[in-house]
Write a structure and sequence with these properties.
7 strands, alpha/beta, globular, about 130 residues
Length: about 130
């Protein structure tokens, strides 16, 4: 079965976090093609309007607004609280990569949750030169 891809427009990529360990969260995608049986984020489906099973769709977030590095000064940012930002579609759409390019200029603590080695692409090129 193929994954349904849809680009969606969002006003802002940053969301104020209710998690105790982060001030803000960024979820570059909605849905996750990994479809892990143990995934706690499956509840997100009820907010998407998708009728497909969790793991059978991915919404790619597009946002024209630049991330406010001033807003994030000395704050903590958790990337991927309810998706995997380095899911297989990241290689094609590079939403996470573009987010990290912007966050490189921010003086903030960044935490990323992923199960993919694609993270090495950005860590090496964006942060180590």
């Amino acid at each position: 079965m193929s994954i349904i891809e849809k680009e969606i427009v969002t006003k802002d990529l940053i969301t104020k976090s209710n998690l105790p360990a982060s001030d803000y969260v960024i979820n570059p995608y909605v849905g996750c093609p990994h479809a892990c049986k143990y995934c706690y984020a499956r509840f997100m489906k009820r907010f998407t309007g998708h009728t497909e099973e969790w793991g059978n769709f991915i919404d790619i977030k597009r946002c024209d607004k630049t991330i406010s590095v001033k807003k994030l000064y000395q704050k903590s940012v958790f990337i991927s609280s309810v998706t995997d930002c380095y899911n297989p579609f990241e290689a094609k759409y590079q939403v996470t990569r573009n987010v990290l390019k912007q966050l490189k200029k921010a003086d903030c603590l960044i935490t990323i949750s992923t199960k993919s080695d694609l993270i090495l692409r950005d860590g090496m090129k964006l942060f180590l030169g």
